[in-house]
Amino acid sequence: MYILDLDCSQECMDLADHKKITIIDHHDTHFQNKHLYKNATTFIEHTPSCSKLIYKLLQSSLEDVITVEQKRLVLMVDDYDSYELKIPGSHQLNTLFWNYQGDRLARFVVEFRDGFSGFNEEQKNIINFYKRKIKRVINDLNVFSANLPIDGHPIKFVSAMATECINDVAHHIIHNNGADIGIVVNPKSNKVSFRKNKQCSVNLSELAKRVASGGGHTSASGGTITETFLNFSKMFIDKK
Q: What's this model's pTM, rounded to 2 decimal places?
């Protein structure tokens, strides 16, 4: 059995739709296309994170063996992926994962196989190093803005270019400018990331699909720097 955790419905469904493959995912674009699978076993649902979906699927078999610390780890991963940030340490846990060197997943499994019971000194040093990096990146930002109507409602957009710390940059430009939607353009990877504040009702998955040939979640999506996106970006002006 092969298990896939990604939206493969738009570009490679023909490669994934086989009887030996199980697909677990929660992306909006994937949910809309899940009926197209004919052979693969699929668990594609609307949940805040794929971690919560996997836990839900395995909960009955895990109940007697999973520890409190392991349950806490699942909740922390879900807390960051849904960007609720209500559980202390969830943001730092994500920071740590993305700043591991080498095989990040393998190292994460080794260090947190028993769940989460706090960070050790080495992990704290990695997190603090990243915090200093975020500060440098944010200090160098040039922010652009635009007020544009979507479905008849005025929406305040802000955008900036960054090649690292993408989520933190998006969070900063949205909340520092009282914006509805933040767009971070990464010229190095040719990617575009969309984020929004919690009050904004715009479906970012649809927006990313429309202007950047992308998709993702309602509150966090991505795409590429397309010709459509370049034309869209011409409506933004430098806040300076």
A: 0.77
